[in-house]
Amino acid sequence: MEVDVPLSEHEQRLLEQIERALVDDDPKFASSVRTGDRRIKARRKLQLGALLVLVGMAVLVGGAVAPSVPLGVLGFLVAFGGLALAVLNYRSATGAVETGGTAGPAGAAPGRPSRGGKPRRQPLKNRLEERFRRRYDQ
Questions:
Q1: Which is nearest to 59 in space by CA: 44, 70, 50?
Q2: Quick one: DSSP state of residue 96?
Q3: Count of CB atoms within 10 A of residue 76's CB?
Q4: What are phi and psi of 34, to 5 degrees?
Q5: Hey, is 115 helix, strand or coil?
């Protein structure tokens, strides 16, 4: 679950300075990041994926009724592509949040190697927040 925490005036000023510096340094990147809520785009892609699955299934059935192998293959590919699009955007579209945290299997400590032997990385947001705290606590 996401919880909105209001920023202090000092933090708001710092955020505005960071945003202005970003726009000055790389306006193209800043405009691509500033597009708003990513869930809206993900929902559209999810809806498009569902529509493609339905259209692909209809074309697949049409290819089976009129014995046409290329039409059936095309229907399968369209349905498969729509399903892939929907699955890849489901988590972003629904706003689902992982509840597992950064711990590895069986409560392993974050940053410690898990079964695969590779250390688990913290999410970017957590790393940036930690750097911000370290920088301004000094």
A1: 70
A2: -
A3: 15
A4: -80, 20
A5: coil
The helix (run of H) or strand (run of E) holding residue 9 is helix 9-25
Angstrom CA distances, 97 to 9, 13, 18, 83, 90, stand at: 29, 29, 27, 21, 11
- For 21, counting Cβ atoms within 10 Å of its Cβ (0-12 exposed, 13-18 middle, 19+ buried), the class is exposed
Residue 131 carries which DSSP code? H
Cα–Cα distance measured from residue 42 to residue 25, given in angstroms and rounded to the nearest whole number: 28
C-beta neighbour count of 2 within 10 angstroms: 6
Query: For every one of its 138 residues, what pLDDT tens digit does the chain have, with 9 covering 90 and above?
Result: 556 677 788 888 888 888 888 888 887 777 776 656 677 788 888 889 999 999 999 999 999 998 889 999 999 999 999 999 888 888 777 765 544 444 444 444 455 555 555 666 778 888 888 888 888 777
Name the H helices within 27-137. Answer: 27-33, 38-65, 69-94, 124-137
Token pair belonging to 29? 């990147």
Instruction: Yes or no: say if 80 and 56 are a contact pair by the CB < 8 Å rule.
Output: yes
Which structure tokens are listed for 120?
């688990």
